[in-house]
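Entry 0007
Protein: Copper chaperone
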Amino acid sequence: MPQTVELKVGMTCGGCVGAVERVLKKTEGVQSYNVDLQQQKVTVVGDLDPQMVLEKVAKTGKPTSFWTN
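Output (structure tokens):
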């Protein structure tokens, strides 16, 4: 069953967005994603483990944490 993972990622430019998108494209289980530079929010949908997604995105070198409302 697909689940949604929301992350806060410290992105400052289009290059940052590209780095996050490249990681997500290579991540198994990702069905779709949205990267919002203005909100610094990454939403990922798929059959995946939230902690694994956080760790993969953090490997871009950007500050990464789970999104809190």
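Curator remark: The chain has one domain: 3-66. The helical segments are 14-26, 50-58.
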